[in-house]
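Hi support team,

I've been running sequence recovery on a batch of backbones for a student project. Most finish fine, but this one hangs at about 90% for roughly twenty minutes before it completes. I'm not sure whether the input is malformed or the queue is just slow. I've pasted the structure tokens below so you can try to reproduce it. Let me know if you need the job ID as well.

Thanks,
M.K.
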């Protein structure tokens, strides 16, 4: 087996019922529940019109500007997959466009995370399959490889293993590791419930803001208005 040019099997995938629970939650709240230490960075932005995403990671490590292994991944995709591509963030060549998008939709792919460029942007907006990418260019890809499918990849320090949960909304994308998913889900639900109560207090005019001045004093801020 050649390291750098191979297709592996996923050993396991996150349960569908767990993915469905994450689909109900804001990415920001999940991120906060992971100590704000995990993110794919601000470079990846939504290329679709609206809506969020939750699915299981099918990972691709691609040579910048080459989409052979992305084609191979789509061929192997199953319904509920999010295809995550580490192509080094290169923007000189688009890794996919409307034809690959149509095929992926037919296969049941629920989203793309591409650390690289796409083309046919209008089609991405019209079909509205959740897609985050680093940029757009009309110039097409090469199809020579090498690359890998179903290996761990990293985008701006966020590590994604095959089978992990990948979520996204207008704030960006986030990977939740399988082994931590239950714990993160519980913490995020608790945070969301707390925010609902806080929003109700804001509406009622009873929101407690004493913590702000307390934090300022604890950190040594001079409150000259006192």
């Amino acid at each position: 087996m050649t390291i750098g040019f191979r297709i592996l099997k996923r050993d396991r995938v996150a349960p569908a019922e767990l993915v469905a629970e994450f689909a109900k939650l804001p990415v920001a709240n999940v991120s906060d529940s992971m100590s704000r230490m995990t993110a794919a960075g601000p470079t990846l932005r939504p290329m679709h019109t609206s809506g969020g995403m939750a699915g299981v990671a099918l990972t691709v490590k691609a040579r910048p500007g080459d989409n052979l292994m992305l084609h191979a991944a789509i061929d192997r995709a199953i319904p509920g997959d999010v295809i995550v591509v580490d192509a080094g963030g290169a923007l000189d060549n688009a890794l996919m466009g409307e034809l690959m998008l149509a095929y992926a939709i037919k296969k049941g792919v629920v989203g793309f995370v591409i650390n690289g460029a796409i083309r046919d942007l209008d089609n991405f907006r019209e079909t509205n399959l959740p897609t985050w990418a680093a940029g757009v260019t009309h110039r097409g890809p090469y199809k020579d490889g090498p690359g890998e499918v179903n290996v761990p990849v990293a985008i701006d320090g966020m590590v994604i293993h095959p089978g992990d949960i990948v979520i996204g909304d207008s704030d960006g994308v986030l990977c939740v590791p399988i082994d931590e998913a239950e714990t993160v889900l519980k913490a995020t639900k608790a945070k969301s419930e707390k925010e609902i109560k806080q929003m109700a207090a804001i509406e009622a005019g009873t929101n407690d803001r004493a913590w702000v001045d307390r934090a300022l004093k604890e950190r040594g801020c001079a409150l000259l208005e006192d």
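--
Follow-up from support: It reproduced on our side and the slowdown came from queue contention, not your input. The mean pLDDT is 96. No action needed from you.
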